[in-house]
Amino acid sequence: MDVGAADFARCLPGLRDRVGSAAFLGLDMEFTGLHSAFQLNNQPSLFDSPAERYQKVRQSVQRFTITQLGLAIFSEEESNKYVVHSYNFFLFPSTLGVTDVELTLSASSIQFLSHYGFDYNKFLKDGIPYMNELQEKILSQRLSEGSWKVCSALNMNVVKKAIDEVTCWIAAAKEGDTVILQDLSDSQMLDVQLVLRQALPNVWTQPLGDSEVMVKKVSPQHRQLLESSSYDCCQKELILTSARGFTNLFQIIVEAKKPLVGHNMLMDLCHLHDKFYNPLPESYDEFKKNIHHLFPVLIDTKTVTKSIWKNYHFPRASNLLEAYEVLCSSDLNPTDPACPVIALASDSAQYAEKKAPHEAAYDAFLCGSVLLKSAHLLLCGSTDDAAKANSSFSQYLTILAEYLNKVNFIRGCVSSINFSGEDASCRYPPPLVVCVRGWPRLNERQIYQELQPLCRFDIRRLSENQFILLSNRFKHVIRVLHDYKDHPKLQISVYNHWRHSPHVNCLLKVSGIVALWSLLAFVLGRAPSCSP
């Protein structure tokens, strides 16, 4: 089900009820870009520590925004049966009285989403506004001070026209006279009312319908009475609620403390923090602490499926849809009556008939479905048939305990980020060192292109003629050591810190020089002096 700004306020009470009664929530997002090209070397690398990767992701999240957020609400109707309501929320940064937000578009990401049928008109024209706590604080302060600022260039022209019209009208108007301003959008109606009230102490404004504002000439005393009325649509709290937009639903999700399920969800969590909670902190540890406070139970289906594929003959899946199709295959689940039943509600029934990859609501539905099917596989391997037949989501959570709060770490020095503890390192092949001979001015990219036909390595310069290679596959290391054993220009061997580290080599050279001078001083000091 698609939800834009026009429908969001109407849908919010029902969403509150469904989230409150849910077993868990599936989440997915689409963005205007992934990895910022503004910073060099911003791509994920096996050299990255979790803190270094976080800084890369943080820089990208600060530049890009969310175009679409998918939320799949899984409700446990009865034992082992789940009904799913899956929503597509089109989002667009709030332009209501806050500093104008700059957003970056990545050409490749825009092209990718266009290929899968993403509706950019809904994103731009009907995107639900949102803001984080810092932006809300600034807006609240401006409302308290009466210093309203129109940030939208489009609204600014409309407001200017409205001020000119009302200024001309009020000069001849009597108290009680009214004039109607027409053809205004929701945000324009609010901007017009706040600016007119701020500029003219003897007018009162009131919305009429969906696109009109009535302006009435009143006395200053009458104006004070109207301002204290509970029916005033421009009350501070009402304005803040409207400006928060999707952040209202985010706060409902946070308060509900339901398990949140995603797939490769580090980027999603960073955007949730930055867009709806607070700007991402510089400290990686503070980020982890904040996320765990907001979402005490996280489950990354990539972490789960990556771990169980060997034990359960789980074929490698390169993406979420492939993982879902493998788990649904008759080879893996041969008509198991105890397998969880997942039924799509009528407002999401289209996903039962047609695949919609990279549509956020569909991918959120896949996340939750992959979780249930993976948990069932784990339960089958650890309990008897009676327990399987009456399995509940609480049982699934118990069997998934070792995966909770561990978010997949793509190409890095750890396998996952643990939001409720220390990040555990993983076992990777040993690093290799390339010593270059007779190939001047060779750089990392040229070495990557040289090795690419054989395997994939991440490369970092060690010294003028040395480079370190890292791979996450042992077979790649073995292959390149074998094939480049007798190469005339590239000597590749296993990295040894004491032998290859420039710092160690420098220290040894300095120590050698110091030892040589000490020896020389000792010899000269012991030489016999010549008598006259």
Automatic annotation (TrEMBL):
It is found in: Endoplasmic reticulum membrane. One of its GO terms (molecular function) is metal ion binding. GO terms for biological process: developmental process; nuclear-transcribed mRNA poly(A) tail shortening; priRNA 3'-end processing; siRNA 3'-end processing. Pfam families: CAF1. Its cofactor is Mg(2+). GO terms for cellular component: endoplasmic reticulum membrane; nucleus. InterPro entries: CAF1_poly(A)_ribonucleases (IPR051181), RNase_CAF1 (IPR006941), RNaseH-like_sf (IPR012337), RNaseH_sf (IPR036397). Keywords: Endoplasmic reticulum, Exonuclease, Hydrolase, Magnesium, Membrane, Metal-binding, Nuclease, RNA-binding, Transmembrane, Transmembrane helix. It is a single-pass membrane protein. Belongs to the CAF1 family. 3'-exoribonuclease that has a preference for poly(A) tails of mRNAs, thereby efficiently degrading poly(A) tails. Exonucleolytic degradation of the poly(A) tail is often the first step in the decay of eukaryotic mRNAs and is also used to silence certain maternal mRNAs translationally during oocyte maturation and early embryonic development. May act as a regulator of multipotency in embryonic stem cells. Is a critical factor for proper spermatogenesis, involved in pre-piRNAs processing to generate mature piRNAs. This is Poly(A)-specific ribonuclease PNLDC1.
